[in-house]
Amino acid sequence: VLQMISDLKTQQLKAMSGAQNASAFGIRFANGFYTLFGNTDDLNVTLDNSVSISSNFSGNTITFLPLSGEIQNFVNGQNNIFVSDNTDGTAFTLVVNKYGVVESKN
Prior knowledge:
alpha+beta
């Protein structure tokens, strides 16, 4: 989970810096992995078999706007990332604000 948060922040920084003149950088959640996207190179990050991750962001995708780094088409209430570990039954929710800051973990 810490790696995913770090990857999220890295994608935001790339968008803010205008890296590689890409139109968008972000992260997309899927069953068993998440994808870091931007420019032409997508990178899939595989999760442990026991970990599942999803979100209620539109399309399970967080896209950062160039330069500002704000989340594109942000909708309050649709800004959660859900993480669960089937090994020990733990589950928590990350709440991400429109500026891409992880505000709470519960």
